[in-house]
Amino acid sequence: MSTIFGKIIKREIPADIIFEDDQCLAFRDVNPQAPTHVLVIPKKEIPRLADASRADQALLGHLLLAANEIAKTLGVQDAYRLVVNNGAEVGQSVFHLHLHLLAGRSFRWPPG
Ligand code: AMP
Questions:
Q1: Least packed by Cβ within 10 Å: which of 56, 84, 88, 100?
Q2: CA–CA separation, 38 and 101 (whole Å)
Q3: Which of 28, 30, 51 is the pocket-test mutation for ligand 1 (most atoms within 8 Å of CB)?
């Protein structure tokens, strides 16, 4: 079943899309947690990272490299954080795999 991110991929609902290629899409988070907060998602509907398989190895690498390219484009390549929430218990609310690309403020460690 398609999620809200599936609908963004199909342009059924609007989003502030900043990057797209044949395998992924990136758009600004509607509820930003940092001055830069972009979501990088595969076009393939994988609910959680835990649902990915060996067959997704190249796609997962592609997402990381796309996130890095987007960070460069946005001028935040020297200080950004990538977050993947895997499962509702750790905060996943949309069950379509996504990388949070966060930058533009200081971040604490460990994360809350
Ligand atoms: P997570 O909680 O890790 O599943 O992250 C889901 C993220 O999607 C949250 O940061 C939401 O603010 C964001 N989000 C939900 N709906 C939309 C939307 N329509 N456009 C952009 N971001 C969204």
A1: 88
A2: 5
A3: 30
